[in-house]
């Protein structure tokens, strides 16, 4: 009997993959890119052992296409344009753009080719590796799922227990950002259904477009690091790449999807570019590295300096959040600015096992190195030390 593929639908990716995809298809359709898979922590067994299974799953992915009802769903999102839906109706992933190999005990995966053909691989690769890894690791699946249910119930109880004592100007709202590092598709489905049923006022949606469609909840997302990083290679002066990326986003979405990501070269350098023009055009900011309390206070101070009322803006936090850390941030900020929380692994892979910390990052665009200078140690991923040194010098950013 042939195993059922892990990927259930080409729609089962993060929303921001589609929104960035549309923008880059319209603005830079000829761009070339390379993405590389990387595991940041030590797995329980060598990921190299998964190579054959990963290749089988990627072959299955490359045989799939978008179903008519999926295209209709995307076309019903007001910021998705009809020509992009037409493009997706013809689209298939090309296996020739993927290289899967091993280096010692490590699994290597590289996606290289036209950016509009390879940028979509990331999320699928990550949750394929995750699900295969835990399938092989777990011997008593029922016991693991029972532990997951116990922990999920505790999270729900924690929200219900804390919120009455945290009455603030704005409500506490969180979303699921855990597609890429989930324990399994079935567990992810159960988590989302449970949260939607148990916390209808606090749980606002998911980054997974397929599951948002299935559950009837809101798909959540705007942009990721790769969108801004790619602009390091699009012909503008390096010092101006953030402004160029933000301007292109504004022109593409005309007021929709207005949460800007701040940490490609650090918050201070971002705020230097986020002037009155952008601060008025964007609805708010997303945090993904560094101390979130310091970051949020800087954001509020910046809005104040620009004479913009912070109560009209939103801060979205998404860096390794838990329910407790989200509630603590909410307590700190929710009387001063709107907040939102994107919680990932803590929701979809908190079952009593050590999660994998895996990523698949853009490393070059148009044959030029690109990089992120994170506000968190260990998140910078770039092998070109010369380019990193130049980027640090241009933005006066050094590892914290």
From TrEMBL:
A Pfam family hit: NAPRTase_N
Phosphohistidine PTM positions: 225
Pathway, per record: Cofactor biosynthesis; NAD(+) biosynthesis; nicotinate D-ribonucleotide from nicotinate: step 1/1
Keyword line: Glycosyltransferase, Ligase, Phosphoprotein, Pyridine nucleotide biosynthesis, Transferase
Record's GO cellular component terms: cytosol
GO biological process entries: NAD+ biosynthetic process via the salvage pathway
Post-translational modification (record): Transiently phosphorylated on a His residue during the reaction cycle. Phosphorylation strongly increases the affinity for substrates and increases the rate of nicotinate D-ribonucleotide production. Dephosphorylation regenerates the low-affinity form of the enzyme, leading to product release.
Top enzyme category: ligase
MF annotations from Gene Ontology: glycosyltransferase activity; nicotinate phosphoribosyltransferase activity
Residue ranges of domain Nicotinate phosphoribosyltransferase N-terminal in the record: 11-130
Protein's UniProt keywords contain Phosphoprotein: yes
Domain Nicotinate/nicotinamide phosphoribosyltransferase stretches: 172-396
Catalytic activities: 5-phospho-alpha-D-ribose 1-diphosphate + nicotinate + ATP + H2O = nicotinate beta-D-ribonucleotide + ADP + phosphate + diphosphate
Enzyme Commission number(s): 6.3.4.21
Protein family: Belongs to the NAPRTase family.
PANTHER family: NICOTINATE PHOSPHORIBOSYLTRANSFERASE (PTHR11098:SF1)
Job description of the protein: Catalyzes the synthesis of beta-nicotinate D-ribonucleotide from nicotinate and 5-phospho-D-ribose 1-phosphate at the expense of ATP.
Protein name (database record): Nicotinate phosphoribosyltransferase
Encoding gene (name): pncB
